[in-house]
Amino acid sequence: MALKASQKSLQKWTKQKWDYLSKGDKGKPKSKRGRYLPKSVRESLTPAQKAYENRKKRRATKAGKQRASYSKSVRRKMRGK
């Protein structure tokens, strides 16, 4: 039986090993957590980029938004370019 597009997408997403940028974010309340990114992107960011992304996400969450836009450098890395 062939997989549906949504099932293929979920398989691909799972293989990317997503996690939070900061190690301690799993135990924090959602309002205090930072970015959730694939392993390849997390490892390629500098400490300054990680801090910026976490600040950006936490600021958006505090403002009541569910999503915060990614910076250009992270977007590029997410696309694999």
Description:
The protein is mainly α. It has a domain at 27-65. 51% of the residues lie in helices and 7% in strands. It has helices at 5-15, 39-44, 47-62, 72-79; strands at 18-20, 36-38. The protein has a two-stranded antiparallel ribbon. The mean pLDDT is 91.
Instruction: Provide the low-confidence segments as ranges.
Output: none
> What percent of residues adopt helix (DSSP H or I)?
40-55%
Taken in chain order, the helices and strands follow as: HEEHHH
The strands making up the biggest β-sheet line up spatially as: 1-2
Number of helical stretches of at least 4 residues: 4
Shape: globular
Largest sheet: 2 strands, antiparallel
pLDDT averaged over residues: 91
Using only C-alpha atoms, the radius of gyration works out to 14 Å
First-residue to last-residue Cα separation: 33 Å
Q: State which percent range the strand residues make up.
A: 5-15%
Secondary-structure-based class equals mainly alpha
**Count of DSSP E strands?**
2
Quick rundown:
With 81 residues, this protein is mainly alpha-helical. The protein has a domain at 27-65. Helix content is 51%, strand content 7%.
